[in-house]
Specification:
heterodimer, A: mainly alpha, Rna Polymerase Sigma Factor, Chain: A, Arc Repressor Mutant, subunit A, B: Jelly Rolls, Serine Threonine Protein Phosphatase 5, Tetratricopeptide repeat, elongated
């Protein structure tokens, strides 16, 4: 069994009837606004499944791609788990953030759990994926940036996992401490401590890498 | 304040991510139709399970509330009056505090019951089941013999004490709190007094005596004076269980089980009257099953089983109910159903009977075909019961 197979999540939803390709096209999702959709989900209304999927799936995919990369083999599995997590935790959603934010946080939590099960595959975020093809608009910048990103990634991967995640989630992805606490299943105070210490450690590591420090200084000055 | 290099590094990463967004890369791949179909199917299953969980939670919450109410009721029964005064106070009309007989059961030895009147504050009305009896109420049993047999009525009090009124009995409720105080001015009555706490008292006043009991069964009657018996007292007491204290003319007499007061006199109960408690007199009529009726005019009907003769059975009832609830909570459904069955069979007129019926019905529902019979039985016995809608729903589920 390959390492990749070993690290696949145990939970996989499979079709028990006909193959998806032979299925009749699903009807379009009924038009429900967020409040109607939430009421339906809380009531366990099965007919809201399509509407829920079509409403939150883009945000789920966006979050997964940002955190796991654009071509992660387990993308669909993680997406399904994130969707199910939304259903099972919807009673905790109090409307103090947008449904997109809630979805993103829950998805990030699922991704975090997924990554922690991976012992061989990469343990950092897809946002630092330097293997992707450079875009045509920023090709020249990408060539330079990818090299720099690779060096930063190396330092982050050398750090304590919790601290590295906290720094990336907060300073790169824009999650606040409360959301990070939820994603990583820790307290807000612990998340804050990890952030402070993670930043300091990253700074110290880059300080000890004069070439990268110079590149970042130039890059920062240029931007 | 972010350390300088950390800030520069994360800004670089963030720009990298934003650039992807601008290029549309994260959204570039549309959702595969197969993946969409599988995800929607998974969501449908999850939503269906969520609905079932919600229903189960509501059901459990309802059961929990019912159990809590029942438990609170049991606690109240056990601790009733622990804070109340211990001395006999006012007489008739001295207090406006409501008394709360849980139910009024009528038993017709003949073809049917006759109306029982209640007089209070100068107003007379017909006593109906469930009507609150206030202190100061005078309950008058009719002098009617239906089908040649006397008609009996039972007042069941919240403490578990039951008072049986024989024909023509005239009883006034003087007090109903920690001290239950009645006045028998005419006729005869029987009493099954639940076990009392040290702070509780049960007293019956007759025109010339006072009878105080503690957890016992006895009969007391007002009879024509007999100079040859008890110095012409009007009172007769016959103790079936426990001990009774009779006070008359400043003299206190202790009457134990099997004894009568005054000693050496004839039977305490007026001629023609039949004791309510089968255990008291053991007559065939009295041994017939008792069925609580919704109306004092209701007809008699067979009862599932004979009533326990134990006047102090409240504790046993509580224990049975608590055991059945504990079995239910532990998931031992069969034991729980058996426990409620036992309670209902042994103490069909128990104050806990309705709660036990409902609990039993809920346990049977969806599991056992006996649920239909249980629902019908509940609706027959408690047509206005708190779980009426639930019982009707069970009947509606009938395939």
């Amino acid at each position: 069994m390959s390492a990749s197979e070993q690290n696949r999540p145990a939970l996989r939803l499979v079709s028990t009837t006909s193959a998806p390709a032979t299925r009749a096209p699903l009807p379009p999702a009924p038009l429900l606004d967020d409040s109607e959709l939430l009421v339906a989900i809380r009531a366990g209304d099965v007919s809201a499944a399509t509407a829920l999927h079509d409403r939150v799936r883009p945000q789920v995919d966006r979050t997964i791609r940002r955190l796991l990369g654009r071509s992660d083999p387990d993308h669909d599995d993680v997406a399904q788990r994130a969707l199910l997590e939304i259903v099972s935790t919807i009673d905790r959603y109090r409307g103090d953030c947008s449904l997109d934010t809630w979805t993103s946080t829950l998805t990030a939590h699922i991704v975090y759990k997924e990554i922690r099960t991976r012992t061989v595959q990469r343990r950092v975020f897809g946002v630092m994926d330097e293997g992707a093809e450079p875009s045509s608009r920023h090709e020249e910048q990408d060539v330079v940036a990818r090299s720099t990103v690779r060096r930063v990634r190396h330092h982050l991967e050398s750090m304590d996992e919790g601290k590295a995640w906290t720094v990336v989630l907060h300073d790169v992805c824009g999650y606040d401490l409360k959301e990070i606490a939820q994603i990583m299943s820790v307290g807000v105070a612990a998340a804050q401590t990890r952030l402070v210490r993670g930043r300091r450690e990253l700074h110290e590591r880059i300080s000890a890498d004069p070439d990268l420090a110079e590149r970042l200084a130039q890059n920062g000055g240029a931007s | 304040m972010k350390p300088r290099y950390s800030e520069l590094a994360t800004e670089l990463l963030a720009r990298h991510a934003r650039r992807d967004d601008e290029d549309g890369r994260p959204q570039a791949a549309p959702v595969d139709p197969g993946s969409r179909a599988l995800a929607i199917a998974a969501l449908e299953r999850a939503l269906g399970e969520k609905r079932r969980r919600t229903q189960r939670r509501r059901w459990m919450l309802g059961s929990g509330l019912a159990a809590a109410v029942a438990a609170a009721f049991v606690v109240r029964l056990i601790s009733a009056g622990s804070h109340a005064p211990s001395q006999v106070e006012a007489r008739a009309g001295a207090t406006e505090a409501p008394v709360a007989p849980l139910a009024v059961f009528a038993r017709s030895v003949g073809d049917g019951a006759s109306p029982v009147t209640v007089t209070r504050a100068g107003q007379t009305s017909t006593l109906t089941e469930g009507a609150p009896l206030l202190a100061g109420s005078r309950v008058s049993a009719p002098a009617v013999h239906v089908g040649g047999k006397p008609t009996h009525m039972i007042l069941a009090f919240s403490t578990g004490t039951e008072i049986g009124l024989l024909p023509e009995a005239d009883v006034m409720i003087l007090k109903e709190d920690a001290t239950q105080e009645l006045e028998l001015s005419h006729g005869a009555m029987t009493a099954q007094v639940a076990k009392l706490t040290p702070a509780q008292r049960f007293l019956v006043h007759t025109p010339d005596a006072e009878v105080e009991v503690r957890g016992t069964a006895f009969r007391v009657a007002v009879v024509p004076p007999d100079p040859q018996c008890g110095s012409g007292t009007l009172t007769r007491v016959d103790v079936t269980e426990g001990v009774v204290v009779v006070r008359r003319g400043g003299v206190e007499s202790r009457v134990a089980k099997g004894e009568t007061w005054p000693s050496g006199c004839n039977a305490a109960v007026a001629p023609g009257a039949t004791a309510i408690n089968p255990a008291i007199d053991g007559t065939p009529e009295a041994a017939e099953p008792v069925r609580p009726a919704r109306s004092l005019r209701g007809t008699d009907a067979p009862r599932p089983a004979s009533r326990s003769s134990n006047a102090s059975s409240l504790g046993a009832q509580n224990e049975m109910f608590a055991d059945a609830i504990a079995a239910k909570r532990a998931g031992r459904v069969a034991d729980a159903i058996g426990g409620f069955d036992q309670l209902l069979t042994t103490y069909p007129a128990s104050p806990l009977a309705e709660s036990a019926s409902v609990e039993r019905l809920r346990l049977l529902r969806g599991r056992d075909p006996r649920a239909l019979a249980a629902a019908r039985e509940y609706l027959t016995r408690f047509p206005d019961g708190f779980a009426r809608a639930e019982a009707e729903a069970v009947l509606a589920e009938k395939p």
